[in-house]
Amino acid sequence: MSILSYFFGEKKKTANVARERLQIILAHERAGRDAPDYLPQLQKELIDVISKYVAINADDIKVQLEKKDDFEVLEVNIVLPEPARR
Amino acid sequence: MSILSYFFGEKKKTANVARERLQIILAHERAGRDAPDYLPQLQKELIDVISKYVAINADDIKVQLEKKDDFEVLEVNIVLPEPARR
């Protein structure tokens, strides 16, 4: 399965709501050694970078961090504001 | 299916090779309107940010961009260098 089909599966469920969305997923596999856990700090900087390209409201950002063994997945979901057409 | 299970499925295939890996996925849904395509520029800046946290060799970065309709997925795979224990 390609990563694109994963997101297309997700898309179908929410196809009725036509909003611009940006999803960032950071997956970190630490290979069993004592690597530092920098994902939370990294996340803040990534959002700062994205803010340079699109206007983001802090309220529209949803962050989820999942951990299992040496594997860590940070998921950031951003619903972008409506364009200025209203 | 959670995004974590997607990555765990991937992990099993390559479990023999114990390397530290970082995967970034940027999924952009444009909601049918004429939004600018900023993912390639964004990708460069994201890699710059990550370089502040971990040493990355340019050769170890693999980038893949998939597009379909108004949906665009940028996948960046980074194999991190071995630690200084050898």
UniProtKB/TrEMBL annotation, chains A, B:
Keywords on record: Cell cycle, Cell division
Pfam families: MinE
InterPro entries xrefs: MinE (IPR005527), MinE_sf (IPR036707)
Signal peptide start and end residues: none
Regions that span the bilayer: none
Domain of life from the UniProt record: Bacteria
GO process annotations (BP): cell division
SUPFAM superfamilies according to UniProt: Cell division protein MinE topological specificity domain
Role of this protein: Prevents the cell division inhibition by proteins MinC and MinD at internal division sites while permitting inhibition at polar sites. This ensures cell division at the proper site by restricting the formation of a division septum at the midpoint of the long axis of the cell.
Family according to the record: Belongs to the MinE family.
UniProt-recorded name of the protein: Cell division topological specificity factor
The gene coding this protein: minE
